[in-house]
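Q: My labmate handed me this sequence with no annotations at all. I'd like to see what the chain might look like in three dimensions before we decide whether it's worth expressing. Could you predict it?
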Amino acid sequence: EVQLVESGGGLVQAGGSLRLSCAASGFTLDDYAIGWFRQAPGKEREGVSCISPRDGRTDYADSVKGRFTISSDNTKKTVYLQLNRLKPEDTAVYYCVSDVTNACPIGYVELWGRGTLVTVSS
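A: Here is what I predict for the chain of 122 residues:
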């Protein structure tokens, strides 16, 4: 089955850290760009970061640059998003997505994960 499964969300205090994981199954990670989107309550979904595992290209939203780091482990078919110096405004459901065109920033989302909730308390 082709799918993306996120994990690693949770409740953390402002200034803390979390590491999100996105495990891919049913396809080869090298053929896709993998990205993270997030959606906070009452707000539109926004792109956070992406990576092309094939060549290591990465991209970040301005709001997370210097605090979040994306990486991939192709042998484990997993993409990670390290979230540091978290702020209450980072509270959202974080979704992992794939782009078969290998575009980063993500251009065409082919597959969505079900999301993992990150809650940052002040």
